[in-house]
Amino acid sequence: MSPASTGASTTVAAVAPVSVPDSRMAPGGPGYRRMSFALFLAGVATFALLYCTQALLPLISGEFAATASQASWTVAAATGGLALFVLPMSALSERFGRRTVMTASLTVAVTVGILVPFAPSLGWLVVLRGLQGAALAGLPASATAYLAEEVRPRALVTAIGLFVAGNSVGGMSGRVITGWVAQEWGWRVAVGAVGVLAVGCAVAFRLLLPAPRHFTPGSLRPRLLLSTVRDHLANPLLRRLYAIGALFMTVFGGVYTVIGYRLTEAPFSLPQGIVGSIFLVYLVGTVSASTAGRLVGRLGRRGALYLAGGTTAAGLLLTLADTLPLVLAGLVLITTGFFAGHAVASSAVSSTATTGRAQASALYQSAYYIGSSAGSMAGAAAYHAGGWAATVCVGVLAVLGVVTITVMGSRAARLQPSLA
Length: 420
Hints:
- By secondary structure, the protein is mostly helical.
- The protein has a single domain (about 30-210, about 220-420), classed as Growth Hormone, Chain: A (Up-down Bundle).
- About 80% of the residues lie in helices and about 0% in strands.
- It is built from 18 helices and no strands.
- It has helices at about 5-15, 30-50, 55-65, 70, 75-95, 100-115, 120-135, 140-150, 155-185, 185-210, 220-235, 235-265, 270-275, 280-290, 290-320, 325-350, 355-385, 390-415.
- The longest helix is centred in the middle third of the chain and has 30 residues, at about 155-185.
- It is found in: Cell membrane.
């Protein structure tokens, strides 16, 4: 071999690219199961605390002589507080770290949760619930940002789906526990039981969650934060995803705020414990959220959203029946469609935003919980004005909004392939 050829081969070897292994977590890898279970528990605590009064609204109305619309503020205040504070809390997570902010949020939220059962009036109950929602604001956006940084991209939808599944279990367990406990000892003891459950979840979360390895601290400068938010809001895909999340949650918030009133009244006249057990249908949401990744793989993001919207609408129409099996079937479809749509939209936000992921997720969560507050109040007001059929109309209009926005996204993707 000639020197010239040896030198050429040496040069080629010198510039050959070096493959750097991806150190982020993946299914089956070290820390992935601990991380998944920790965030699952965080989701359980968040939704259990956030919606702990929802199944108890008829009892709260009875104690404080309040209408459905007035009692619904105990739910709307919590979700509204979360919606208002999720963006500032996401900024804190950019500076101080995702795990630190999530831990602090859970600590404050469970502390307020211990005080909620002692509220002397409906007004104080609403105030405490608002504080609780504001404290919980550090969880959702920080969790999705943590996953986007610590989990490999191909596993992101599945990982976020597991976190959303924790939300569904928390929402279900909180409502079921409060339903049966309230039937025996009243709504105050029931809310206290949820607080104790959340304390256990918070402790386990902190012990299990792996320390972040890919977090880079950001700045708390308001100007930089506003610039990041403005950039996200200027992205048409992110705007559509925010609107879709809000509309899905409008349906869900309205249905589950009012369903307790409907089932405790004629023709059903169910006891409080049985009404609380109705929320076992959340287990269906656990499955649909955790399988959202496979659904997107088969149908694409927009196809998955169409299916989620159609499933939700079919469920709404089924609940118009006056027979309990059909109402339950309708709730199953609503829950399946909602959690699938939420998992698809929230994971799309995390994968779309390449910078300021916490702010991108925070804007989604803000829109999502604004939709929850709006749905709770609109659904209760509609029920007061026109019965369950009016609440269903509110939900159907929201689903039509989801379909319309998804169609707009499909059209935009055809015109500009880079937005697909």
